[in-house]
Amino acid sequence: MHKVFVYALSTCPYCRAARAYLDENDVEYDVVEVDKLEGDEYKAAVEEVRRVSGGTAFPVIVIDDESVIVGFNKKRIKEELGL
Amino acid sequence: MSDATARRRFAPGTTIEDLKAYMGPFVDRLGYKFNTESSFVDDVLASELEILEKTGDVYCPCRVRTGDPKEDVRIICPCISFHRDEFAAIKKCWCGLFILKEVEDGSELFGVIEALSGDVEVPVFRVEDLPPGQVRHVKVGKNDIAVARVGDEFFALSNVCRHAFAPLADGFMDGYHVMCPWHGWRYDVRDGTTDHPDVDVRTYPVTVRDGEVFVTVRIKR
Ligand code: FES
């Protein structure tokens, strides 16, 4: 089973779409809604997103601590997770 | 995160219709329109209203605020002018609220395309926005470009004079030449050449379609 981690924003339609797609396909994942964090936690999460994705665009999906998919890219999610 | 700022650009009670009325003409000048999927447009604008309530401005709902005002100004919707090359390559803004005018069905662009590279035609302004005999600066990705109009022909060249780096678009046009505002070096807008050896500036291909001017730039990743 793959380890899937999603950095999301509660306001972002593509984050919602990506999560819905994972849910539909019964993919288990951990998620952090970055904009719901406060203070230092928020800053740390923003830094982390920047480090893993090179930017500040969402969603950021990290698979097996290795592959990073920025945005809701169905094709790549499918490929990486073998759906 | 609550980071309400003192500055607030929209009155309390701003609605989706207000945002549409404000953004529509703005993006039209940049070669874009609202997505053809109106329910998606309403969904995104509803998110922006939520963000407006919290922050005092309409930040893009798919980008995170860093706290650095210089960086965050680049994600106030519509953010097209800050990301022209990237958006022209995917034919939409990041979230898909706006699509290039030439796209007929915006739903085909849902999802985000990554790892862009190669030549991209970027809309910069409308033909009527630059009268003949004038030159204007546009920022396309990392490139500072001077777009010049001679009659009905358009040309694009680096905006940076090779002498002391003055902005050529602040200079004036003389036929097919633009004269640098600082020390008067003359560049031919057709090929970027000057009278001084080995200090020509680069030029960019320009196309005009449906009343819009496009400059082609190369995206490297
Ligand atoms: S900076 Fe252009 S001529 Fe000197």
Structure description:
The complex is a heterodimer of chains A (83) and B (221). Chain A is an alpha+beta fold and 83 residues long. Helix content of chain A is 42%, strand content 20%. Chain A is globular, with a radius of gyration of 12 Å. The model of chain A has no long low-confidence stretch (mean pLDDT 92). In chain B, the strands form four sheets. Chain B has a four-stranded antiparallel β-sheet, with no helix packed on it. Chain B has four helices and twelve strands; from the N terminus they run αβαααβββββββββββ. Chain B is elongated. Chain B has 221 residues and is of the alpha+beta class. Classes of the chains: A alpha+beta (83), B alpha+beta (221). FE2/S2 (inorganic) cluster binds at residues 161, 163-164, 166, 180, 182-185 of chain B. FE2/S2 (inorganic) cluster is lined by residues 161, 163-164, 166, 180, 182-185 of chain B.
Number of strands of chain B: 12
The helix/strand series of chain A, from N terminus to C terminus, equals EHEHEEH
List the uncertain runs of chain A.
none
Report mean pLDDT of chain B, rounded to a whole number. 90
Main sheet properties of chain A? 4 strands, mixed
Task: Please list the strands of the largest sheet of chain A in the order they lie side by side.
Answer: 2-1-3-4
What oligomeric assembly is this protein in? heterodimer
Largest interface: A-B, 29 and 25 residues
Strand adjacency order, main sheet of chain B: 4-5-6-10
Mean pLDDT of chain A: 92
Tell me roughly what share of residues is in helical segments of chain A: 40-55%
Report the sheet with the most strands of chain B, covering strand number, pairing sense and barrel closure: 4 strands, antiparallel
Order of helices and strands of chain B: HEHHHEEEEEEEEEEE
Distance between the termini of chain A: 12 Å
